[in-house]
């Protein structure tokens, strides 16, 4: 029996939801599960025009939305000459961001499932990763302007397919999932699918245990200040520093590279990508947009007396934040 992950259910019931829909097995299963649970949602589909059924899938999504009185947003993607997976993902999320912003959605729902979770885990494991990176797919992930919800992480691909077949629900097969030119498909074919066939229940439990461990790992910090794009965090253990900065920059839409993570171990005052100022001082982490603007001497003196790091001061001035507000 398949079901929505328990921690996602109340969030879905109480907010305005947008489902990232492809007409494939996973998103189709989530579509009909949401209907069964009487959860309100609309759908959004990106047509990459790469498959034989691309037009049929888009028309199917439009018809399905009409049948169930939902809104359906669609867009035609341009062709990407190189690095298709990254460019396609960036285009897709830019599209979702625009819809969410213009129509006041609270949540973006994606149909990632247990197989996806194991693929991610194995791919990160082979590249070198800590607990936070290994568990990159979370049931609930905060973003700058909305929350990403993944309600199917406990369900395997096989279980979702059985659900669709049993209920005679329509879906399409994405043949690109079998093309080994994509790294994730290599892991899927040679490792993750085979492991799940034999050890599904144990793998499912292991992810639950690992997620509990991750929550405990992040227990020793507090978000002491947040305004727009600025965060101030207090922490107890130095081992949390890189993980917290990675987590909060991700919320702000910026992904740290491996080299940038290493830089955090060497330096306590950094600007990443010319965009984000990160300051570590006296068991506090300060994260804010990096700006270069002239500030009056009086304001600089207020920041100095408050012992605030230099790289975040311009953002405080621009947003008219009283330096004393950061002192609690």
TrEMBL record:
The keyword Ligase belongs to this UniProt entry's keyword annotation: yes
EC number: 6.3.4.19
Molecular function in Gene Ontology: ATP binding; tRNA(Ile)-lysidine synthase activity
Keyword field: ATP-binding, Ligase, Nucleotide-binding, tRNA processing
Catalytic activity from the UniProt record: cytidine(34) in tRNA(Ile2) + L-lysine + ATP = lysidine(34) in tRNA(Ile2) + AMP + diphosphate + H(+)
Enzyme class: ligase
Domain (tRNA(Ile)-lysidine/2-thiocytidine synthase N-terminal) ranges: 17-190
GO terms, biological process: tRNA processing
Stored Pfam families: ATP_bind_3
Annotated HAMAP family: tRNA_Ile_lys_synt
Name of the featured protein: tRNA(Ile)-lysidine synthetase
Taxonomic lineage of the native organism: unclassified sequences, metagenomes, ecological metagenomes
């Amino acid at each position: 029996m398949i079901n929505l992950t328990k921690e996602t259910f109340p969030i879905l019931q109480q907010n305005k939801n947008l489902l990232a829909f492809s007409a494939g097995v996973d998103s189709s299963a989530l579509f009909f599960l949401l209907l069964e649970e009487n959860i309100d949602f609309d759908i959004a589909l990106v047509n990459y025009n790469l498959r034989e059924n691309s037009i049929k899938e888009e028309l199917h999504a439009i018809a399905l939305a009409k049948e169930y009185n939902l809104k359906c947003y669609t867009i035609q993607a341009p062709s990407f000459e190189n690095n298709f997976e990254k460019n396609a993902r960036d285009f897709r999320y830019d599209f979702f961001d625009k819809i969410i912003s213009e129509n006041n959605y609270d949540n973006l729902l994606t149909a990632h499932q247990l197989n996806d979770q194991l693929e991610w885990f194995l791919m990160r494991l082979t590249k070198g990763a800590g607990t936070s990176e290994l568990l990159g797919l979370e049931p609930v992930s905060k973003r700058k302007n909305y929350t990403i919800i993944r309600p199917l992480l406990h369900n395997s691909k096989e279980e979702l397919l059985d659900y669709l077949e049993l209920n005679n629900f329509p879906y399409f097969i994405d043949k690109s999932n079998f093309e080994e030119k994509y790294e994730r498909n290599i892991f899927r074919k040679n490792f993750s699918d085979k492991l799940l066939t034999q050890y599904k229940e144990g793998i499912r439990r292991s992810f639950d245990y690992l997620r509990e461990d991750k929550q405990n790992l992040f227990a020793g910090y507090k978000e002491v200040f947040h305004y727009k794009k600025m965060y101030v965090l207090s922490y107890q253990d130095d081992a949390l520093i890189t993980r917290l900065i990675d987590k909060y920059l991700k919320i702000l839409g910026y992904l740290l590279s491996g080299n940038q993570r290493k830089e955090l171990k060497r330096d306590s005052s950094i600007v990443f990508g010319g965009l984000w100022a990160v300051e570590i001082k006296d068991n506090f982490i300060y994260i804010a947009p990096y700006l270069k603007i002239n500030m009056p001497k009086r304001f600089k003196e207020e920041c100095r007396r408050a012992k605030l790091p230099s790289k975040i001061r311009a953002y405080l001035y621009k947003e008219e934040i009283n330096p004393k507000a950061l002192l609690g």
